[in-house]
Amino acid sequence: MWEVFLYINPLCSYCLKVERSIIDFTRKNNIDTQYHFVTTFNMATITDYMLMKGYKPADLEKRNEVTENIFEAALLYKAAACQGNKKARSFLMNIQNEVNVLGKPFNEDTIKIAVEKSGLDFKAIITEKNSEAVRKAVRKDQELTCQMQIEKAPTVIVFDDDDPTKPGVMINKFGSQTSEDIINENLTAMLEKTMPQPNNTGVQTDRQSRIINIDNFRR
């Protein structure tokens, strides 16, 4: 079985394309997979997102707005997880699609649409969103992001649980931010080429992927 960690910006269409691609790959190859979506936002990922949206990174007002929206989306995702991880992932992908594919504003109406499409209870999510448990879960994601030195969103880390001696594969370059076909092709090639293999050093880096020792990540 594979264990897949996806470090993502909860509002990013690029992240959505990678999410779809990795799910499609594991389904096509009949790989039993456990997914972990980790919401990620820091100075670097927010700047990347602003550039993708055509905003000026030096625009402090816009940066604050983007940061607040991403944090709000992360809280909503964690609140949705209280109703089941599968539905929460569906909500996350729906809100990414609504905001950055369909171009809708990130507001209550758009959130409601994403919630309804995911079969979730809107009132329960809004209630849970501001709970200490949800905020703690978001902080935990941020701590894990810092601990793993994740600098890009999206970043994918794959472990082969059938062989715990193998290191994990980290992928954070997918060859395109716009073409899902190119992302699919590159992700497939990288997974087939760089599936975890034992190594002597535990750490290996190349142009497209970085191999990390499983002990450095698994908790």
* H-E string: EHEHHHHHHEEHEE
Arithmetic mean pLDDT: 85
Query: What share of the residues does DSSP label as strand, in percent?
Result: 5-15%
Quick one: how many beta strands? 6
- Biggest sheet character: 6 strands, mixed
Distance between the termini: 17 Å
Q: How many individual helices?
A: 8
Strand order of the largest sheet: 2-1-3-4-6-5
Instruction: Note poorly predicted spans.
Output: 196-219
State the helicity in percent bands: 40-55%
| Class by SSE composition | alpha+beta
Task: Provide structural commentary.
- With 219 residues, this protein is an alpha+beta fold.
- It has a domain at 10-143.
- Helices cover 52% and strands 14% of the residues.
- It has helices at 13-28, 43-53, 60-81, 85-100, 108-117, 122-129, 132-147, 180-194; strands at residues 2-8, 33-39, 155-160, 168-171, 204-205, 209-212.
- Strands 2-1-3-4-6-5 form a six-stranded mixed beta sheet.
